[in-house]
Amino acid sequence: VQLQASGGGLVQAGDSLRLSCAASKRSSSRWIMGWFRQAPGKEREFVAAIGWSSLATIRYADSVKGRFTISKDNTKNMMFLQMTRLKPEDTAVYYCAADRHLILSQIEDDHEYDYWGQGTQVTVSS
Fold first, then answer.
1. How many angstroms from the chain centroid is the CA of residue 85?
2. Residues 6 or more apart from 62 whose CB is under 8 A from it?
3. Which is nearest to 117 in space by CA: 91, 86, 79?
4. What is the pLDDT along the chain (126 residues), one digit of tens a residue?
């Protein structure tokens, strides 16, 4: 499956932004899709993840809980990340990722994901 992330941009602190991730094929219920980010000079880190089944698994990094919302549109093979109350420390390249063999304990580990989008830059000015 191919993934394409979009929606990044330059915003001010406190603003909102919505990222999108388009998948090239329909995902089965076993797929997990996630968002990761990488700031300059830092390692890539987990942001949020969602399961593709109707009883979707949703998980957030502590740093974004209450501010970011992950969602999906199964009919369009799309995943979204609604980001609100953005902070300068949210500045990073955001990547969407997917995998179909993950268990819950692996969801936050970027090394477990086999499919990646190209990344979209989010810059939050203070």
1. 17
2. none
3. 79
4. 899 999 999 999 999 999 999 998 776 667 899 999 999 999 999 999 998 775 668 999 999 999 999 999 988 999 999 999 999 999 999 999 999 888 888 999 999 999 999 999 999 999
Q: Which two tokens stand for residue 117?
A: 């989008």
- Confirm if 82 and 71 have CB atoms less than 8 A apart: yes
Amino acid at 108: E
Contact call for residues 1 and 113 (beta carbons, < 8 A): no
Sheet with 17-23, strands from edge to edge, namely 3-6, 17-23, 78-83, 68-73
> Under 8 Å CB-to-CB from 52, ≥6 apart: which residues?
27, 28, 29, 30, 31, 32, 33, 72, 74
Pairing of strands 78-83, 17-23: antiparallel
Total number of residues shown for the chain: 126
Return d(Cα 38, Cα 46) in angstroms, integer. Answer: 9
